Amino acid sequence: MSMLYQSQRAMRAKRREAMRRGVIAVLDIGSHKIACLVLRFVNSDDRPPADGVGAMAGQSSFRVIGAATTRSRGVRFGEVDTMQETERAIRTALQGAQKMASARADHVIVSLAGARPRSYGLTGEVSLGTGPVAECDIARVLAACDLPDFGEGREVLHAQPVNFALDHRTGLSDPRGHVGNRLSTDLHLLIIDANAIEHMLYCVRRCDLELAGIASSPYVAGISSLVEDEQELGAACIDLGGGTTGLSIFLKKHMIFADTVRMGGDHVTSDIGKAMQIPMTDAERLKTRFGGVVATGMDDREMIELEADTGDWHHDRRKISRAELIGVMRPRVEEILEEARARLDAAGFDQLPGQRIVLTGGASQVPGLDTLASRILGNQVRFGRPLRVQGLPQSACGPAFSAAVGLVLFAAYPQDEWWDFETPANRYPVRSLKRAVNWLRDNW
To answer: Which element (helix H / strand E) includes 13?
Structure first.
């Protein structure tokens, strides 16, 4: 833990340095596309605004000055699979964004989509001396949280105090300056596969970039897609990407659960390719131009020509109805949504005061998805677009950019994490753990 703790602290220092210099890049490495945004900070103060994420007050302190995307290569299930190919794709996106920005970015903050995330809920408690709660007391209470034995090859990606209680007062977001006898905290820990970080780090370094932060894609997609009330009262974000579908649950303005379903829009494309016996590029075009998930009587009569050039005239000039295409797409989309629903149920989402589910991500744009999603996920489903940020080009405002825009907000207004405090980080006791949402319900 101390190794990672130190590297997270080092990344925070690099983020501060980049903000002082005025330019930082964010990189959303997905299975379908790699998006790069370059930000310019204007005399930014390092502290986030009083309300943390979701507060629009400080947004004038930065603007997006460059944006570029490229087709993702070498990434499977949201993880770097072929490093040389991913490195080339990152370089392409970075160069495009830097060219538009007319500025060079030396530091980058990256989001990870896959890597098998797992949420843990921890609690810690300490006695206080006289006087108000100080920074060092928060460090002590965080160190009092018993770390789980999460096994070989796993690392902590996020460690956020999501609640503080002072004596009998709970629900404090920041106890500094308050007076009491006993301070306790609830800490949300997100663990991922360490090799996913290693591979991504290798690609970033090969592009002559310094890593100034890593975030979970489900987390940053939630930051940009859920409105403030939803983050406060309890809501889930389902980010339908190419290779993965990210899930995050927010309550009291903090993420309290994250998970990834290893399926996404590319699996739908693959199903079309196999069923119609056409290449992936043709299947993708077919999906985006004619795709859908709810068939009407009209769709039996709407014929689509499958253009191919195998030389076999009968094979190349086939026609299918739109209803047939929908018949191929619908089962996979249903499977993804049902799996997402099962993960949310297992986390205890149905116990939260708010039940809103927000769908975002590039694969959420399939016609008819609203009808299907409300049948599988419940009535309180809406589609989410990322928050507007200054300078963001029109091409980067759609749901496919939720994670990229969330990274911008993560860069500008980071929430407090364990490594922001001078914590003694050499503790490894084990205790039985509850799933994050149940733990939160029992403790708040």
So the answer is: helix 2-21
Within 10 angstroms of residue 328's Cβ, the number of other Cβ atoms is 20
Taking the C-alpha atoms of residue 160 and residue 186, their distance in angstroms, rounded to an integer, is 9
* Residue 155, domain CATH: 3.30.1490
Cα distances (angstroms) measured from residue 52 to each of 25, 105, 111, 231, 415: 21, 25, 19, 11, 6
Q: Which of 239, 374, 382, 367 is nearest to 293 (CA)?
A: 367
Return the half-sphere exposure (C-beta side, CA atoms, 13 A cut-off) of residue 199. Answer: 21
pLDDT above 80 (res 398): yes
Tokens of residue 213, six digits: 């932060």
Q: How many residues does the chain have?
A: 444
| In a domain? residue 164 | yes
| Bridging pattern class, strands 235-240 and 245-251 | antiparallel
List phi, psi (to 5°) of 12: -60, -40
Angle at 346 between CA 341 and CA 351, to 5 degrees: 90
CA distance 422 to 178: 20
* Count of C-beta atoms within a 10 Å radius of residue 254: 21
CA 46 to CA 23: how far, in whole Å? 14
Read off the pLDDT of residues 344-397 as tens digits, 9 standing for 90 and up. 999 999 888 888 999 999 999 999 999 999 999 987 999 999 998 989 998 889
Spatial strand order of the sheet with 154-166 comes to: 118-127, 182-193, 154-166, 169-172
Q: What is the number of domains present in the chain?
A: 1
The closest of 236, 273, 212 to 359, measured between CA atoms, is 236
Is 150 domain-assigned?
A: yes
Please classify residue 319 by burial: count the beta carbons closer than 10 Å to its beta carbon, then call 0-12 exposed, 13-18 middle and 19+ buried.
exposed
On whether residue 139 sits in a domain, the answer given is yes
Helices (H), 128-257: 135-143, 194-206, 217-225, 228-233
Site of tokens 């809406």: 382
Say if residues 58 and 43 touch (Cβ distance below 8 Å). no
Instruction: Identify the pLDDT of residue 425.
Output: 47
Residue 135 lies in domain: 119-190
Cα angle at 34 between 291 and 68, to 5 degrees? 100
Tell me phi and psi for residue 114, to 5 degrees.
-95, -125
Q: What is the structure's pLDDT at 310?
A: 61
Q: Is residue 419 part of a domain?
A: no
Phi, psi of 266 (to 5 degrees): -65, -30
For 380, phi and psi rounded to 5 degrees? Answer: -85, 60
